[in-house]
Amino acid sequence: MSGAAIGFRVRDQVISRTDSLSVAAGSRNYLCAEFEFVTPEWEGLTKTAVFTYGGGEKLMLLEGDACTVPWEAIASPGAVYVSVFGGDLITTGQACVRVHESGYAGAPGEPTPDMYAQLKGQRDLEWFSRTLSSVSFPPGISEIRRCFFADCESLTLAELPETVEQLGEEAFLGCTSLTELPTGLTRIGQSAFALCTGLTEITIPEGVREISPIFGFGAFTACKKLKTVTFAGTPDVIGGGTFRGCNRLETVNVPWAEGEVSGAPWGASNATVNYSHKGGAE
Questions:
Q1: At the top level of CATH, which class does the domain 5-101 belong to?
Q2: Is the pLDDT of residue 43 over 70?
Q3: pTM for the predicted model, two decimal places
Q4: Which of 2, 44, 136, 194 could serve as 221's disulfide partner, Cβ 3.0–4.6 Å?
Q5: What is the Cα–Cα distance from 129 to 95, expressed in whole angstroms?
Q6: One fold for both 5-101 and 113-282?
Q7: Where are the domains of the chain?
Q8: Structure confidence by residue, pLDDT tens digits, 168-206
């Protein structure tokens, strides 16, 4: 990334600023943010920077621990607060960037790409052909790792052995023909089914104990045709953004009483949660 850089250091879950750059309002496609993660718990995670400002919030995926500063965040004088999340980790505080008055008064630029467009744009891993339509594995496998089937757009059926309990980050991301979830799961990782636009009605298997992450980009983000979700069991944790961007999601059926699992409706702002639900999808 070119241009001036704002620097940040993340130690454990504490973020601090490392530069003294003066930021002028109205800068565009010029400023980048660079992050140094000095403790090992952040290694291997897909990390996202959060820029919070007077007019809202922008999320930017990090590439090489850096990202462009969204122009909307620095369009006007004021304070911008920066934090980072990755997997189930999030910085406990925010680093402040002061934006100063400038003489620039240009027209607004093109909107910064949202998280869905950014995530889709980063898909450069092709473990399998996009023409793959079905797959089955021999028994003994316990985990499907990160990005394993990402962007297999023709995949309609994934017959996983009962020994598969965990799905890694983005395991089935962008599998737009997938219509149902594998059974036997206990953990569904970050973005595991994000952008799976073929999902319309799903059942979360009874054995699922965790849907990650606790913060940020969720397991089913931007499944834009999803209308009904039914939980067969009661997870211990459901990530707060699990159904973010599922704009057509109308109903979430859960077998537990209201208040037993926190965070409802888990990013699905338009959905109704039916508590103490028994039986199949309505």
A1: mainly beta
A2: yes
A3: 0.58
A4: 194
A5: 42
A6: no
A7: 5-101, 113-282
A8: 888 888 889 988 888 888 889 888 998 899 999 999 999
